Amino acid sequence: MSDIYVEETQTTPEVNFDFRRGIFEIKGVSIPEDTEHFYSSILEKLEDYARNLPTDKTQMNFKFIYINTSTSAVVAKIIKLLESINSVSHPVTVRWYYEEGDEDMRDLGYDFSTFTNLNFILIPCQEIL
After folding, report:
1. 105 three-state secondary structure
2. How far apart are CA 19 and CA 5, in angstroms?
3. CA 17 to CA 71: how far, in whole Å?
4. CATH-assigned architecture of domain 4-125
5. Structure confidence at residue 1 (pLDDT)
6. DSSP string covering 55-84, please?
7. Sign (positive/negative) of CA torsion 71, 11, 93, 89?
8. Which single residue of 34, 41, 59, 80 has CA 20 to 30 Å from 89?
9. Three-state SS for 16?
10. H or E, element range at 35
11. How confident is the model over 87-128, as pLDDT tens digits?
12. Are 12 and 30 in contact (CB under 8 A)?
């Protein structure tokens, strides 16, 4: 399975999925014009990964500066996929980074953490780089 790397733009996040290591990261602003189109191949590859786990654990890093409502729906889908991976005795950790003082992104991460049983860690940082 080939890794995914998508460069960040003004409206789409950087996406870096290393399937061999089981480390995934989505970082930046996510307000794509067509959210379904932007995330569809990412979700498909994550589903393939879930069927053929090449690692013994998975880490998902969300480092959003801002996301729109349609991206929130995709994040919920990603979390549900990660739950299915976690349910087969494959530990999954979700790290939700937010900039210190950004209560909206902190609260959004907290909201996501409350509807999952995954190991979900909220991490304040100086700046999302």
Report:
1. helix
2. 11
3. 17
4. 2-Layer Sandwich (3.30)
5. 80
6. SS-EEEEEEEEEE-HHHHHHHHHHHHHHHH
7. positive
8. 41
9. strand
10. helix 35-51
11. 888 999 999 999 999 999 999 999 999 999 999 999 999 998
12. yes
Bridge pairing between strands 4-6 and 14-18: antiparallel
Q: Dihedral through CA 57, CA 63, CA 16, CA 69, nearest 10? A: 100
| Consecutive H or E run containing 89 | none
pLDDT digit string (tens) for 1-42? Answer: 899 999 999 999 999 999 999 999 999 999 999 999 999 999
Consecutive H or E run containing 22: none
Handedness of CA 37, 11, 115, 1 (dihedral sign): positive
The average pLDDT across 55-63 equals 96
Phi, psi for 75 (deg, rounded to 5): -60, -40
What are the backbone dihedrals phi and psi of residue 17, each rounded to the nearest 5 degrees, phi first?
-115, 115
Which whole number is the average pLDDT over 70-89?
A: 95
Residue 129 has pLDDT above 80, yes or no: no
- Give the bridge partners for 119, in sequence order: 93
